[in-house]
Design a protein that fits this description.
The chain is an alpha+beta fold. Helix content is 37%, strand content 22%. It is globular and about 80 Å long. Bound molecules: glyoxylic acid and manganese (II) ion (2 copies).
Length: 444
């Protein structure tokens, strides 16, 4: 087959999971094409596409194309089942910790005094999230294991692939709830009482899908199995675009957190209440939003109000309450505190309250691990990120951790437009496989 025809027939759309390849040729033909040419359609690309397409429709909104894989929702349960099935088909032993994070083991996780080499990420999403944030790390981890096995290698130290639950905190508000719980940063009592937008507690959400919330708690045994943790993730900014490099090494996270603010007003009639007589919670909320922007500019930080709930929410009613959630991030603790303090001052002057929902300190990943990954990956660029990750929670619990970022050609993330080119995804798999081989030590 000529190369031009092959390219057309094997073109893929990873973000939307469209199987253009299979719509034109049979899977058997695809493998022949791949083996025959080794040009664009490498076997890895097909393997990637097969895994990717299996989850492409799970929790995807047919109108926006974005994902709604909220913790313990039907879509989330299906993602967990998919992960369990992939692990089973590879003969990886699946365990769950006290929070329900899934761990798949190649080798005995208690069989090395130095601990296991763990990789993976999460499978939940933000509202209308992209395809790559989280799943790219899990899919790449499975494929990296496949690649080591295809090369006939056996790790000396056990290798683990983890799927952390509720990383985004999209349903109950606390990000990285899975890793915060097992590291003891989030208490079971607090977690189980968190409520989603429909008033359902985390405890009831877990029970509804057959889980046992009374098991929740810190899990030092699960943590003790991790010798090193390397999370592969799509890049969520524009750091790699101009560097002509498909992957970077992550060396740390900005300080960041979430705060819930409540701005009071007085409910009244929109058509009869004179302007001077109004106490409109939405006007107060508007001041809060603008103050967040001003504080971010003043302290060289980031501050975002991305979710607002207005009560009672009638078109013809002045609002009695605005609940707004603030997300703030900064390269250092002082800038984050200054940002949040400035906004809190505004909230207080509006007669409102501001409550911290989660906060993660500035996090430096393990220096030796970062250095090792950088040299293994051909002096890859090193960068920190304003995004939060389970790797940060583990690092702050004393686990040597680092990250690998895969180039994002637009920088857009937490959006259906999130994207990574197929060849960059494969470069990520190759990078992760060589990192796992090096850290675990392999023998033929
Ligand atoms: C997670 O993606 C976050 O940074 O909020
Ligand atoms: Mn995310
Ligand atoms: Mn993520």
């Amino acid at each position: 087959m000529e190369e031009a025809a092959c390219e057309a027939e094997s073109s893929i759309d990873l973000a939307h999971g469209n199987l253009l390849l299979y719509s034109r040729v049979s899977p058997r033909q695809c493998w022949r094409i791949a083996r025959g040419t080794f040009w664009r359609s490498s076997i890895s690309e097909l393997a990637f596409e097969q895994l990717w397409s299996a989850i492409a429709d799970i929790g995807r909104d047919s109108v926006t194309g974005g994902y709604r894989r909220f913790a313990w929702s039907e879509a989330d349960v299906r993602m967990h089942e998919w992960f369990a099935g992939e692990c089973e088909s590879r003969g990886l032993e699946l365990t769950e910790d006290r929070m329900g994070n899934q761990w798949a083991w190649w080798g005995d996780p208690d069989g090395s005094t130095a601990g296991s080499i763990v990789t993976g990420s999460h499978l939940d999403s933000v509202p209308d999230g992209g395809a790559f944030d989280g799943p790219l790390g899990v899919v790449s981890a499975l494929l990296a294991v496949d690649r080591l096995r295809a090369d006939g290698l056996t790790p000396r130290r056990p290798i683990g692939v983890v799927n952390f639950v509720d990383e985004e905190g999209a349903r109950f508000g606390v990000s990285c709830a899975g890793s915060r719980m097992i590291t003891g940063v989030l208490s079971p009592d607090r977690a189980l009482a968190l409520r989603d937008a429909d008033g359902v507690t985390m405890a009831d959400a877990m029970r509804a899908v057959g889980r046992q919330p009374e098991q929740l708690g810190p899990d030092p045994e699960a943590l003790s199995r991790i010798g090193s943790f390397v999370e592969l993730h799509i890049e969520q900014g524009r750091g790699l675009i101009d560097l002509s490099r498909p992957v970077a090494v992550g060396n740390g996270l900005w300080a960041h957190g979430r705060w819930r603010t409540e701005i009071p007003g007085e409910a009244n009639h929109a058509g009869t209440t004179r302007l001077n007589d109004r106490r409109d919670a939405v006007i107060g909320c508007a001041h809060l939003v603008l103050e967040a922007r001003a504080a971010a500019e003043a302290h060289e930080s980031l501050a975002t109000v991305g979710k607002i709930n207005i009560m009672p929410g009638g078109v013809n009613a002045i609002a009695r309450l605005a609940t707004a959630w603030l997300d703030a991030r900064a390269a250092d603790e002082a800038a984050l505190s200054a940002t949040v303090d400035q906004i809190a001052g505004q909230v207080a002057s509006l007669g409102g309250v501001m409550v911290e929902e989660s906060r993660t300190p500035h996090t430096d990943f393990d220096n030796a691990l970062v250095t090792r990954l950088t040299s293994l990956l051909d002096d890859a660029p090193v960068m920190s990120t304003g995004a939060g990750h389970d790797a940060g929670i583990l690092a702050n619990a004393g686990v040597p951790a680092a990250m690998i970022f895969v180039r994002n050609p637009t920088g857009i993330s937490h959006s259906p437009a999130e994207w990574a080119e197929p060849e960059d995804c494969l470069a990520g798999v190759a990078a992760l496989a060589s990192v796992l081989a090096d850290l675990a030590g392999v023998e033929p």
